[in-house]
Amino acid sequence: MKFLDLFGRLKPVVIGMVHVKALPGTPLGCMKMSQITEEACREAEIYRDAGIDGVIIENMHDIPYTFSVGPEVSACMATICAAVRSVCPRLPLGVQILSSANQQALAVALASGLDFIRAEGFVFSHVADEGLLNACAGDLLRYRKQIGAEHVQIFTDIKKKHSSHALTSDVSIEETARAAEFFLSDGLIVTGAATGAQADPRELREVSQSVRIPVLIGSGVTYDNIERYLDAHGMIVGSHFKEGGHWADAVDPEQVKRFMGKIRDLRQ
To answer: Is the pTM above the cut of 0.90?
Structure first.
């Protein structure tokens, strides 16, 4: 299994979030690229030193998000991701580019030596806060093939957070999961309703029983509720690792160490 080959274990893998500061040209952008890159590397090193299993680099501060992601974003993210790879040469690394810039994320991963991407809108349409998002699996996997990035895994959100799924209210999360698996997703991500919101353990169980590919939890995991998600192949943790539990703040080294200490005890 590709997931096992990448992370060295099947479950539960812990993936920390590096929320890159607002990039040049975005409404909140105010830092030089050298500063943004240095901060991203600093946070990645915190995760690396705490023994985390992987890291995702994401342009979360580029609010409000747009589907029209310019070439400057891809260029900046490639620069940052390459720098993070240089300080974490053996750590599994991924990238997500908001909003739904999945082909750009693949190109960045290929250029900077990353291992996976997190993709939105893989199967079925939904209405996100940025607007209507249509499925991209066919185009995305063809693009991955065309650029020679088939070694880059694609982990895909299903019934994703910050979105209305009224358009597919007659399609269950299990059916969505099976569709994503059929369309060759490398792994599925189950989330709560918003960033930091807890995912439903029942949905984790239902999705895991519906597919044969890895299932990850994409929001709301904390030190106090880890036990609810031990059956997941992976836990993507962002807000809980930040000062005060807020996604926009800096990574708290002690919080990461405490969480990873508990994970190591639970794995034994």
So the answer is: yes
